[in-house]
Amino acid sequence: MSDRDAEYLEYVTAHRGRMLRTARLLTAGDTHWAEDLVQVALTRLYVHWSKVRKEDGAARYADRILVNAFLDERRRMWRRRESATEQLYDAASPPSQDPAERLTVLGALAKLPRRQHAVVVLRYFRDFDVQTTAELMGCSEGTVKSQTSRALSTMRELLHDSLETMESLR
Amino acid sequence: MTDLKELLDEAAGPEPTVTDADLSADLTRGHRALRRRRITGFTTGAVATALVIGVSWSVLPSGTTSGAPQPAVQATKTPKPVQTTPKDYRKLHQDTRKPPVIPAKPVPLAANSTPFAGVVFTCDLIPRGWAVRSFAKQIVLYDPKLANPSQYHDATYVLNVWSEDMVDDGDGLTPAKYGEAWTKLPKVRAGNQQAVATGVPGSPYGRQQVFLRQGNTKHLVTITNQAWNLAWDMNTLLTFAGSCHYKK
């Protein structure tokens, strides 16, 4: 095994789980799409490994690819991710303390426009600051701030209503 | 927004365990993508080079006929045109013109005191009596006394020099022509420069190429010699190549 392969595998071992969790939020719980995004990001990362390792940092590069792959896919509204099969395969959702709450949050994320969706995940799940988020998404800091503001407002409404409804049913 | 962070953290689910199968599949996909990228890069580079060389020949002057020496009667190895039967109904155009005659003595080198214009490189030597044209960031050297060049096969009477950069796709700086990094390619000396050479050493027939690395940079000066009328062997070509360099 070459040094490049060994270093790459070391990185993937350490970061694949984190990338998959980010991708789950970006895809609003679509586990197959999340896995696709992670595979795309890791494949491109391997191709550019020596460059990104030296210049940009592998983690930053992988995050950028992940977010851009997500934004690109969401932009292609004509593209259908699903294909019909005779047999239905039910992917088990990740175990959670409260499946209903989890689905509510994912549902709210899915209703956000794609850039607001990405901003929420990067800033409040990954804890990136405005500048880093802007770099990853390829936009200005002002855009990140405005998208964050709108996203939070929408999320607040959606989550408040949904969580209140759930509370009343309990 | 601590609440939102907690909600998102919960919604993302637990961190999955990375299995050996995941790692193996990721690595396989990476290998495949890198291989595909190299093949694509090489093909694109080759097509672009062929296009530029082809166009540069087409704009060469047709030469003069008055007082031009008759081609010497000398044994030449003229490649027989290969008959192909295209599957397509369209006929493939094949250049069946002959190359110029190989002179009995190789064209000697002479000092070049005029740096090439419009390009980042120059050569301190050029074939004696040959002229210089620049075209599309390339330098084309040709014999202005060659009688009626259009009678000859396009790819047989010019020497091209251009600059290009090696690319690093992960295995180190690699010339576009090759799939292996510079450090792994067999090298020769051309003057005081490191070079990679292709073509049949010592043979004046066929295409010979020399890639000259400029110090430890990614920059190359590339020389393609297809001029039968130079009658150069590889040593002469390397002597000429050794005089080519980026301008200071």
> Averaging pLDDT over every residue of chain B, what do you get?
78
Let me know the largest β-sheet of chain A.
Answer: none
Helix and strand run of chain B: HHEEEEEEEEEEEEHE
Order of helices and strands of chain A: HHHHHHHH
First and last CA, distance of chain A:
56 Å
Number of strands of chain B: 13
| Form type of chain A | globular
State the helix count of chain A.
8
Q: Can you tell me the CATH class of the largest domain in chain A?
A: Mainly Alpha
Multimeric state of these chains? heterodimer
Kindly report the greatest chain-chain contact and the residue count on each side.
Answer: A-B, 45 and 31 residues
How many domains would you count in the coordinates of chain A?
2
Distance between the termini of chain B: 59 Å
Notes on the protein architecture:
Chain A: One of its GO terms (biological process) is DNA-templated transcription initiation. The complex is a heterodimer of chains A (170) and B (248). By secondary structure, chain A is mainly alpha-helical. Chain A has 2 domains: 78 residues, Orthogonal Bundle (Rna Polymerase Sigma Factor, Chain: A), CATH 1.10.1740; 75 residues, Winged helix-like DNA-binding domain superfamily/Winged helix DNA-binding domain (Arc Repressor Mutant, subunit A, Orthogonal Bundle). Chain A is built from 8 helices and no strands. Chain A starts with a helix and ends with a helix. Chain B is of the alpha+beta class. Chain B contains 3 helices and 13 strands. In chain B, the strands form 4 sheets. In chain B, strands 4-5-6-12-11-10-9 form a 7-stranded antiparallel β-sheet. A two-stranded antiparallel ribbon of chain B has the order 1-3. The longest helix of chain B is centred in the N-terminal third of the chain and has 39 residues. At the A-B interface, helix 1, helix 2, helix 3, helix 5 and helix 6 of A face helix 1 and helix 2 of B.
